[in-house]
């Protein structure tokens, strides 16, 4: 039985483990030995028992491995399991001297291993009792409970089964062995602890299998049947686990996990059912490939984010104020002032977010500064501040989490140059494409990219006039810097002018003068990117690099514009603060006058508050509302400009090209105007900056988030319609995967940059005295301090005081810096290890190649090394020939002298050497007799049993 | 809602959800797509697991696959008989592997199968030539094809046997930045 023979060897080596001096002469055996060595440590740990009659054991062990193998091969081993199990009891195999010899060896080795573990060799009687003990313990872990009449044997069998299991960690095998147990296990009450543990392990195993089944590359039918099997098993045995008190608890736990799984699945189903626009995106995807679709995915993601932010803002700030706060017209800040009342409902004013809009919940100024409102004692000012901060915190968390996830998925992609052609070959087709036109474009672009690579490969890009190109690049950058500076100045100028306009009578101003800032900003956003693109032509970069530059420049433009706008705005704010101060003083003075007059006139100290209609009260400019209005106006004009551009630039163009083509001098579709392409980078950047403005503006205008949700919703439909109706697929289809995190990085940067001004205004600027939730406070964050002081127990206040102590903050910062430094170092070390490993792989690969090709190493370093090696042909050959046998003889004598407990050591060393050179004394070391021989004889085969066995086994093979 | 109960039992749906990356809704959608392909062949009632297979020609006509140069290979790789006849189970399996949720390792295995035209578990030059010709609609000259195939093997072949084994392929594809985003069909 050839296979059995082999397994026999394996098991033999396995039991004796690392210590045995097996020297298999075939490759497969060597491999088997290596495997068994790895496993052996485990088996040793678990299978501590020493059987009393090793004969039996041995037989069983011999039976075991083939059975294991068989199991591994077939999944439905339940049937063939049984006979094999039965067979274990009897001696089914013919014995021969070889096996006896091996038995001897094993016994010796087992003693040895035992000695190494327990420091003492046990007598047979001792072993007997111990066997009973350990065996009982072990039996639990084992599976089969068949053949009750042969208790003793059975236990051992179980132990062995366990052994076998340890050898092979394959899941399937475990499954089959466990299912065999399932068939036999009728008396669950009598399960011992160990059995329960084993069962538990299997159940866990099954559960794991169920959870990971979908990741297995198996056929569906197989997966389904495996799933059923596993589920049945879990169903059957889960209840049997646990005992007494633990049992009920366990049952409860199992029930809960089941419910949890079910709930999770339902939740997952619900979640996917909630994801909108799957169809739309698929349509776009199949028409335009993954790059355009990535914009829409981004848009959808943004929509989700904004929906959550809107939930926060609306639920925690707007709704409480509407439901529980004072109604409109009750106090000055919630009333349109007298002099604006006439025009407050005019469309032009409303469209400008003046009039009633300005004094509505959309803006900061509307919110009252009562500490608590309503029956719930809701602390609105505090919630306003915390929600605004929370919006930032949540966004930051989400963005970073998404980035991390993207980074995980993106593959390491470390060395770009390594797999140029392979990647092109295997990943360039976009499986999403389902439109013939796009497919044609894709074919064309793949062909071009291949041709480009071939050209690159053939001639390593020669630069004909490097000086001209350098000059042109510098020149282009200069031009772009100029236009950036120009646009920044223009915005500053316009904002300043608008401040002057604001001081004038609004009726004398034209519409353009009112909306100059927004108009100019949108115009710049519209004109500059194409201008940059034109300038970038000068540079003559590779399109992908050019795209990156373009993105970077547009980003700089938007950022510069936004920040100029902000600085101008803050100028305005400081001016407003001045006027506010004077107005505040004036009102206070008037109030004082009133009180003085009243008390002197009526001669009473009980002065009622002055009876002035809320509309008539003198009030400050409320700079927060002003800032909020600016943001809202900016967003609205941005939306208008974007939508108009799509309508004119894409739709009208497509319309003209399509229908005027019948009566035109040249081919409009193929020639000059043609159809527009979808501008991915511009659109994504637009979205990112829009979001930045939302983040900044949300503090001053809580309604802004809601408006943004509407905007994103409409633009999803509008743009997906526009792109399907008027755009053509890109001629060069870019891939989106890499830029995905690039967009996220931009978003993160914008988030951070928009956080700055908001936090600045929270911490340093004084809030308006007569509007908004923080009126009356010195600084906005005083709300928090006030809450801590008044509403929380004193010790928490103390904690806060300590926590905000510079003495504590400084060490904290220091600690963080240290942590960053440490993590940085660690990551560098990993990187180093990574590159080292890569280098090693490269070396191995080249080595392998060279060996195959039988030619000299191509690696220069290796060549040099080889040159440095001593010339082999010059060395005297006989000296090398003679040495090894001497060593072997020397070592092979040693083990016979050493004690059994330490025998392995010498043997171990010997093995190494005997591997190096065959032992010449082979015939002598072949053990002729069975184990009955003297100890010396028993051990004598050890020096080169591998050889001996190899010889013995060879004929049978 | 009543519709759902007649197509699959709850257990079947749960089993499918355990075995694939799809949710209930998507599995039902898949069934309706499968049904659409051949309304007279595919029963609406799958509770007793009818034995029904659709031929390759019908499946590659789906809009999701129609433009794909490897459509025949995809379908063949997922059919148990290797001829491209797909039962509903295999159909679901195919889109599960190609779905967004499937892990890279699983996708790599099937990508390897797809590109292995002659089903010998190696990507040899012949396979690469076929792949390349399908990708470029045979617009490259034979010399160029030769060069590209040679370069590909040179790049990715780790053991130097002049063909790509799965290990080579996996090593190469696991670093490809675009693999996950492009080896993906939305259903």
Write the layout of secondary structure elements.
The complex is a heterodimer of chains A (957) and B (187).
Chain A: H1 2-16, H2 27-46, H3 54-73, H4 78-89, H5 97-118, H6 124-141, H7 151-167, H8 171-184, H9 193-212, H10 220-238, H11 244-274, H12 278-324, H13 347-351, H14 355-358, H15 380-409, H16 420-427, H17 436-458, H18 466-503, H19 511-514, H20 516-537, H21 543-602, H22 623-660, E1 676-677, H23 680-697, H24 703-726, E2 727-728, H25 737-763, H26 782-791, H27 794-803, H28 806-853, H29 860-868, H30 877-897, H31 903-916, H32 922-925, H33 935-939, H34 945-953
Parallel strand pairs in A: 1-2
Helix pairs in contact in A: 1-2, 1-3, 2-7, 3-4, 3-7, 3-8, 4-8, 6-7, 6-9, 8-9, 9-10, 12-15, 12-17, 12-23, 12-24, 15-25, 18-20, 18-21, 20-21, 20-22, 21-23, 22-23, 22-24, 23-25, 30-31
Chain B: H1 2-7, H2 10-19, H3 24-37, E1 53-54, H4 56-59, H5 63-66, H6 71-78, E2 86-87, H7 88-97, H8 104-115, H9 125-136, H10 142-156, H11 166-173, H12 179-182
Antiparallel strand pairs in B: 1-2
Could you tell me which chain pair has the largest interface and how many residues each side has? A-B, 71 and 71 residues
Shape of chain A: globular
**Count of discrete domains of chain B:** 2
Helical fraction of chain B: 55-70%
Report mean pLDDT of chain A, rounded to a whole number.
70
Tell me the span between the first and last alpha carbons of chain A.
8 Å
List the total number of helices of chain A.
34
Strand content of chain A: under 5%
Q: What can be said about this structure in brief?
A:
Chain B: InterPro entries: CIBP, EF-hand-dom_pair, EF_Hand_1_Ca_BS, EF_hand_dom. By secondary structure, chain A is mainly α. Chain A is built from 34 helices and 2 strands.
Give structural notes.
The complex is a heterodimer of chains A (957) and B (187). With 957 residues, chain A is an all-alpha fold. Chain A has helices at 2-16, 27-46, 54-73, 78-89, 97-118, 124-141, 151-167, 171-184, 193-212, 220-238, 244-274, 278-324, 347-351, 355-358, 380-409, 420-427, 436-458, 466-503, 511-514, 516-537, 543-602, 623-660, 680-697, 703-726, 737-763, 782-791, 794-803, 806-853, 860-868, 877-897, 903-916, 922-925, 935-939, 945-953; strands at residues 676-677, 727-728. Chain A contains 34 helices and two strands. In chain A, helix 3 (54-73) crosses helix 8. Chain B is 57% helix and 2% strand. Chain B has twelve helices and two strands. Chain B starts with a helix and ends in a 5-residue tail after the last helix. Chain B: It comes from Cyprinodon variegatus.
């Amino acid at each position: 039985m050839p296979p059995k023979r082999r397994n026999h060897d394996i098991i033999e080596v396995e039991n004796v483990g690392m210590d045995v001096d097996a020297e298999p002469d075939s490759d497969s055996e060597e491999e088997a030995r290596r495997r068994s060595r790895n496993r052996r440590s485990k088996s040793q740990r678990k299978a501590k028992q020493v059987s009393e009659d090793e004969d039996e054991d041995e037989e069983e062990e011999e039976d075991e491995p083939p059975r294991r193998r068989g199991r591994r091969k077939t999944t439905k081993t339940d049937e063939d399991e049984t006979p094999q199990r039965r067979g274990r009891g009897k001696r089914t195999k013919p014995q021969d001297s070889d096996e006896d010899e091996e038995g001897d060896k094993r016994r010796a080795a087992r003693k040895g291993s035992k000695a190494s573990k327990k420091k003492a060799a046990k007598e047979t009687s001792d072993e007997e009792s111990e066997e009973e003990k350990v065996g009982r313990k072990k039996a639990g872990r084992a599976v089969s409970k068949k053949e009750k009449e042969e208790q003793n044997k059975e236990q051992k069998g179980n132990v062995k089964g366990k052994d076998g299991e340890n050898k092979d960690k394959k899941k399937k095998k475990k499954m089959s062995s466990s299912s065999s147990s399932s068939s036999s296990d009728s008396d669950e009450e009598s399960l011992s602890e160990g059995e329960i543990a084993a069962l538990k392990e299997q159940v866990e195993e099954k559960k794991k299998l169920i959870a990971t089944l979908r990741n297995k590359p198996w056929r569906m039918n197989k997966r389904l049947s495996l799933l059923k099997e596993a589920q049945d098993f879990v169903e059957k045995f889960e209840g049997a686990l646990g005992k007494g008190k633990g049992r009920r608890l366990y049952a409860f736990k199992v029930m809960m996990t089941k419910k949890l799984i079910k709930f999770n699945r339902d939740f997952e189903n619900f979640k996917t059912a909630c994801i909108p626009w799957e169809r739309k995106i698929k349509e776009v995807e199949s028409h335009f490939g993954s790059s355009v679709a990535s914009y829409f995915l981004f848009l959808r993601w943004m929509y989700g984010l904004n929906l959550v932010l809107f939930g926060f803002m609306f639920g925690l700030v707007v709704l409480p104020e509407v439901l529980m706060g004072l109604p409109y017209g009750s106090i000055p800040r919630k009333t349109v002032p007298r002099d604006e009342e006439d025009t407050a409902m005019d469309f032009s004013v409303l469209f400008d977010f003046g009039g009633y809009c300005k004094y509505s919940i959309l803006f900061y100024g509307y919110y009252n500064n009562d500490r608590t409102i309503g029956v719930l004692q809701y602390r609105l000012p505090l919630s306003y501040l915390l929600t605004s901060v929370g919006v930032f915190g949540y966004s930051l968390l989400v963005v970073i989490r998404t980035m991390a996830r993207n980074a995980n998925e993106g593959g390491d992609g470390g060395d770009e140059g390594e797999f140029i052609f392979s990647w092109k070959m295997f990943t360039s087709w976009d499986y999403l494409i389902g439109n013939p036109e796009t497919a044609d474009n894709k074919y064309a672009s793949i062909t071009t990219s291949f041709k480009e690579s071939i050209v690159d490969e053939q001639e390593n890009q020669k630069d004909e006039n490097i000086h001209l190109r350098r000059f042109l690049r510098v020149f282009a950058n200069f031009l772009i810097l100029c236009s950036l500076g120009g646009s920044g100045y223009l915005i500053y100028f316009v904002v300043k002018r608008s401040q002057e306009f604001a001081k004038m009578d609004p009726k004398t101003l034209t519409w353009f003068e009112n909306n100059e800032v927004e108009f100019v900003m949108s115009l710049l956003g519209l004109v500059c990117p194409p201008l940059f693109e034109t300038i970038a032509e000068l540079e003559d970069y590779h399109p992908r690099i050019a795209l990156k530059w373009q993105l970077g420049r547009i980003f700089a433009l938007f950022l510069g514009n936004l920040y100029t706008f902000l600085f101008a705005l803050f100028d305005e704010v400081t001016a407003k603060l001045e006027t506010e101060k004077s107005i505040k003083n004036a009102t206070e003075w008037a109030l004082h006058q009133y009180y003085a007059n009243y008390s002197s006139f009526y001669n009473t100290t009980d002065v009622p508050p002055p009876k002035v209609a809320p509309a008539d009260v003198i009030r400050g400019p409320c700079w927060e509302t002003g800032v909020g209005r600016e943001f809202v106006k900016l967003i609205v004009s941005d939306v208008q400009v974007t939508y108009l551009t799509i309508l004119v630039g894409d739709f009208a163009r497509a319309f003209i090209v399509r229908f005027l083509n019948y009566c035109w001098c040249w081919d409009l579709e193929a020639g000059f105007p043609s159809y527009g392409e979808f501008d991915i980078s511009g659109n994504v950047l637009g979205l990112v900056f829009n979001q930045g403005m939302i983040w900044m503006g949300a503090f001053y205008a809580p309604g802004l988030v809601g408006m943004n949700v509407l905007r994103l919703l409409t633009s999803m439909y509008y743009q997906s319609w526009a792109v399907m109706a008027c755009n053509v697929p890109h001629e060069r289809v870019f891939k989106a995967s890499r830029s995905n995190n690039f967009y996220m990085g931009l978003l993160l940067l914008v988030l951070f940059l928009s956080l700055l001004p908001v936090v600045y205004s929270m911490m340093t600027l004084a809030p308006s005295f007569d509007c908004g939730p923080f009126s009356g406070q010195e600084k906005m964050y005083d709300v928090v301090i006030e809450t801590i002081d008044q509403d929380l127990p004193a010790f928490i206040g103390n904690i806060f005081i300590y926590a905000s102590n510079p003495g504590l903050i400084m060490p904290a910062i220091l600690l963080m810096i240290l942590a960053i430094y440490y993590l940085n170092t660690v990551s560098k070390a990993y990187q180093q290890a990574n590159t080292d490993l890569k280098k090693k792989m490269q070396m191995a690969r080249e080595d392998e190649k060279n060996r195959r090709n039988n030619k000299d190493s191509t690696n220069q370093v290796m060549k040099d090394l080889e040159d440095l090696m001593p010339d082999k042909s010059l060395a005297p050959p006989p000296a090398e020939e003679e040495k090894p046998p001497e060593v072997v003889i020397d070592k092979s004598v040693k083990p016979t002298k050493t004690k059994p407990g330490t025998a392995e050591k010498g043997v171990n060393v010997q093995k190494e050497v005997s591997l190096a050179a065959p032992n010449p004394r082979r015939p002598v070391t072949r053990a002729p007799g069975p184990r009955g021989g003297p100890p010396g004889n028993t051990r004598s085969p050890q020096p080169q049993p591998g050889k001996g066995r190899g010889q013995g086994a060879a004929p049978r093979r | 809602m009543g519709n759902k109960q007649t197509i699959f039992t709850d257990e079947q749906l749960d089993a499918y959800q355990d075995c694939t990356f799809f949710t209930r809704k998507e599995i039902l959608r898949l069934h309706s797509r499968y049904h659409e392909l051949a309304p007279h062949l595919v029963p609406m009632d799958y509770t007793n697991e009818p034995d029904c297979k659709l031929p390759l020609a019908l499946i590659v006509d789906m809009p999701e696959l129609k433009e794909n140069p490897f459509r025949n290979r995809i379908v063949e790789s997922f059919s148990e008989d290797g001829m491209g006849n797909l039962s509903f189970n295999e159909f679901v399996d195919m889109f599960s592997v190609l779905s967004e949720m499937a892990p890279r390792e699983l996708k790599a295995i099937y990508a390897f199968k797809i590109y292995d035209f002659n089903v010998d578990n190696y990507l040899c030059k012949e396979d690469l030539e076929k792949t390349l010709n399908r990708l470029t609609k045979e617009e490259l000259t034979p010399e160029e094809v030769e060069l590209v195939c040679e370069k590909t093997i040179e790049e990715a072949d780790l053991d130097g046997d002049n063909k790509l084994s799965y290990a080579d392929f996996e090593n190469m594809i696991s670093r490809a930045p675009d693999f996950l985003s492009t080896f993906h069909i939305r259903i």
